[in-house]
Amino acid sequence: MGFDKEKIKQIKGLMVLGAVLVLAIIYSSSVVAGIVLAINIAKPFIYGGAIAFVLNIPMKLVENKLLRKWRGKAADKLKRPISMVLSILLVLLIIAVVFNTVVPQLTATIAEIGRKIPEFAQQVVSMLDEFSQNYPQLEEQVSKLESLRINWESLADGVINFLKNGMSSMLTSTVTFASSVIGGVVNLFISVVFALYILGQKEKLEDQGKRIVTAYFPKKASDKILEVMALLYKNFSNFITGQCTEAVILGTMFVIAMTIFRMPYAVLVGVLVAFTALIPIVGAFIGCIVGAFLILIDDPILAVWFVLMFLVLQQLEGNLIYPKVVGNSVGLPSMWVLMAVSLGGSLFGVAGMLFFIPLFSTFYVLLRESVNSRNAAKQALQKIQADREMEEIQISGPEDDMEEKDE
Fold first, then answer.
1. Would you indicate the residue range of the signal peptide (predicted)?
2. Residue 307: is it exposed, middle or buried by C-beta count within 10 angstroms (0-12/13-18/19+)?
């Protein structure tokens, strides 16, 4: 039995795919190294896409709300650059407020610690003297150690060798650090420029992407791909908006609670907690550690009360506010939100926490639609079968009655 041309083409495609998979398994180390190299090369463009995605949210808000009354060709040409500049200024303003609030207070606290160190050292020395007086056997052991002979020449040689190795390693570390800083600045510049290009031509890029998908995939597959991409965009946008809203709510709660209980650094800790709360679920703990350390310098007992207050607010935020605000923004139930954060954090750290919630939301929506459509199809099929059985019963009923009458 012969095969037609389409079947032969499919068989050839499967053979090529199998050969590629076998080669990928044999040379897996080289494949992984190539993938890592490609990712490192594409990092500035990946970061640029992420920056453009984040900036697009306030930019759309400015275009659709603030500048919605601008009409005409001249206004349309100016609307995009103005909204882009305002969005960048908004982000820079938020960063400046955070740094101007946090950095000076941290600097003052570190200076206060420096002033208190001599007093603390004196207290430690007094405690050690008192301890040695209460336990004279320790002083005898110290005297024995002092009587030991020390080979100063070998000790000096060891110190010189250590300094030589330390200087070379320090020089290497300095060069590595400088090159990484320069590389980071260059990548940041490329990312920002790439993000501006994306924002300036996002409609054109969207149209080109749709044309590519429809050109290389069948209609049914291309429609599904475009549907999934639109759903991903919606979920990621809603997640970022919900995460920022949740961070503002949590920071405001801390400012109000610390003001009511007359704790110091209320605004500082509130801003710090709000900024670190952008990391889902666990980010606020970073702000708690820094806030507790700041309060500890002034009053250790008050620092303990601050930690207790944080635990209460964190439970309230983690179990009620976060699943409701972020979960509703991405259409994901509370249980799935916690599952996404736990799984993403265990696999990919902070980045996994940020990305797994909208990814889980997309998977949840697609799974829900598939389940509903399959159940609806099964119910329709069952209804058709039930209707056919009823028709058969209705048709066979009169004939049975006639047979009984004849008998």
1. none
2. middle
